Amino acid sequence: MALPRQVTPPRIALSDAPPTRVHGADAVAIPVLVDGDTIALGPGSAELLDELDLDVFGLLEHHESSGKAGEVVEHAVLSPEGLSNPSLKCVLFVGVGEGTPADLRCAGAALVRRTKGRECLATSLAALTDDAGLRALVQGLVLGSFGFHRRSDGPKETPVAKIVLAGVPGSEGRQDALVRAVAVARAGWASRAMSLVPSNEKNPLWMAEQAAEVATSTGLKIRVWDEQELARDGFGGLVGVGRASTTPPRLIRLDYTPAKATRQTPHIVLVGKGITFDTGGLSIKPAEAMMNMKRDMTGGGVVIAVMSALAEVDCPVKVTGLVPCAENAVGSDALRPGDVLRHYGGRTSEVTNTDAEGRLVLADAMAYAVSEIKPHALVDIATLTGAMKITLGQRTGGMFANDDSLADLLRAAGAAAGEPLWRLPLVDDYEERLESKVADADNAPRGPGGAISAALFLQHFAGSLPWAHLDIASVGDSPVDSGEWTTGATGFGARALLHWLELSDPLAGVAAR
Ligand code: BES
Ligand code: ZN
Ligand code: ZN
């Protein structure tokens, strides 16, 4: 069945020319900066005011403009005939606050929300920025334009088709930075789109098809295990969780090797939870809690999206992405509470709650990474525990790590990417909660601190590797349109991981264990 046409991200170009000189632009946007107690107009304003008879400060005052990032004041151009660009229909004044990357991200997102349906937006928002600012701005422009639908009559609204970042001196020399910025933003878009796909279209095989498309278009190596191969190779957690579904489980492996790799090139493994729907299994979820469970594959979608952009951001290390995919369904063959599963490598888990399925599938993939890939670091990302919402709310992701440098690198990358991560403790004293009467661990210890118990469960599968675990359960969903977030699934984590993996040394200071 052909899917209805989707909106696509705006095309973005750089230009030295002032925005008013961008031919064909139907909207021009000028930054408004906070300057001490007052506001100032940014680059491009002089050229604009030469041509347009407009009392800008009167207009801004009328709208009580403070220059705060994301504030937009719009002026309709009623008679553009005499202008150097007769296509011009509106001028927007966009608050950029202090001009920090976060301000620019927010301003970019606000601007594209106000220019939906336009042909071409020319803006001088990038005129004063360095590459970090450019990147944040592009993230706002791209992700604020995000749309996803399954309406029969097409998308409700379409983003502006083209954006020219004008007035950028030496724009030729900034082209590389723009390409990288777009790659990261598009990875955020791709992971968000995958999370929004309804689960009647999205099953483990579909996930494998997405990964195969990425592999074909970007030249990554791919291997996919089917259910027989998973059983044969001992992936008991993944087989167990996936066995009640009519769409059987898959394990996806994608491999990226940098062009300049040598035998010394470090290797990082990313593991993403790929539960394409989580009913809870026989420990079934209440209807309300099941509502958003199509996005329980967000971690897996993030890993696929990150893998697709590694070459474009020139990632210097080898990266393997592992995505264990299954549908946690209810059926006569479903996993039962009390069942014991044998993970890859032999460790066993007693399933006291079939809704704690994420850790069961991650465990297999992590154990496989440790024994077969032997990387220098392991990072998993998963919508793992509802407890995260109570712990950190919906704007910050949870992070656990057994290595301080790895945690610091990820924290800094998340902050720069607008996907903040907050480190939580792997409390040793809680280890006893994992005890099971019959197996090596209980998959669902009761009691408070559920996100910590889950992390402690996973830690046993990280071997002695430097390891970080990102629990993105609550940030996987945005309750409102806000900044670059759109209501619903967020695809959180792709940007943060790419900001990390593009560093010249993503393992700086990380202990060799
Ligand atoms: N997929 C859920 C976690 C989740 C909850 C993600 C809400 C996004 C929003 C996970 O598989 C789960 O159900 N975890 C249980 C674990 C419990 C049974 C130990 C939870 O958090 O309630
Ligand atoms: Zn669950
Ligand atoms: Zn789940």
Core attributes:
single chain; 513 residues; alpha/beta; 7-stranded mixed beta sheet; binds ligand BES
The fraction of residues in strands falls at 15-25%
The average pLDDT is 97
| Count of β-strands | 21
The rough form would be described as elongated
Cα-based radius of gyration, to the nearest Å? 24 Å
Describe it for me?
The strands form four sheets. Strands 8, 9, 10, 11, 12, 15, 16, 17 and 19 form a nine-stranded mixed beta sheet that branches. The protein is elongated. It starts with 10 loop residues before the first strand and ends in a 12-residue tail after the last helix. Helices cover 32% and strands 20% of the residues. Strand 13 and strand 14 form a beta hairpin. With 513 residues, it is of the alpha/beta class. The structure holds ligand BES and zinc ion (ZN) (2 copies). One zinc ion binds next to loops.
